[in-house]
Task: structure prediction
Amino acid sequence: MNKEQYLGALKKALCANRVEDIDDIISEYDEHFARKLSDGYPEEEIAARLEKPEIIARQFVIEPGADPYRRRGANVFIKTGVIFLDIILFVLDVVLFAFIAVFGAAAAGLTAAGACVAASGGFFPMPVMPAAARILVGVSALGLSGLVAVGTIYYALFVTQINRAYFRWHRGVMTGRISPPLSTAPRLGGKLKRRLRSVALISLLVFIAAIVAAFVLMNISAGAFEFWHVWHWFE
Result:
């Protein structure tokens, strides 16, 4: 059974059981197929590892006289444990998302400092060095800011994906609903992934080339390997 056949059978089973929110359920399984396909799994193997569409559809059936807002899920002890886990995750999330702000601020600061140093020497005292070397140091800071920015984006996507995977698991435990598990690794579109890789590679090359060139230039200008002593940087 391939992807189209599986999703078609699942939709048919959901309709037969008069399940609500069919489009949302189909979307979850479609996303699961897309993620596994990007990892190199064939459609037939992905479908074979999932529950049969009839079993999935039956979990949404509400028995006559039952509370429509209450589904079968884990027992009270497991649910209590999950609630405590929610509290821990909330605290952890505050820390994880705070790091996103820290990394983003670092990228912005490096960008501002690099542009300032490269353009005019900055609005703060600069060590003695040739103008060309100062420009190269500023350019290297710009390259480093690009690396930090790409790393921040990947980190933010990773934290977001971890939360999505946890909340899907949480819903399954609390409601007894069978859903395909989400990977903790973020799935990026091909164009976005290529652009981020290109920015990271260019930033890395710029950073390495500029910092090495600045180091060599300052050695030549000072006439000594330890140029910082010649120019009394730390005095």
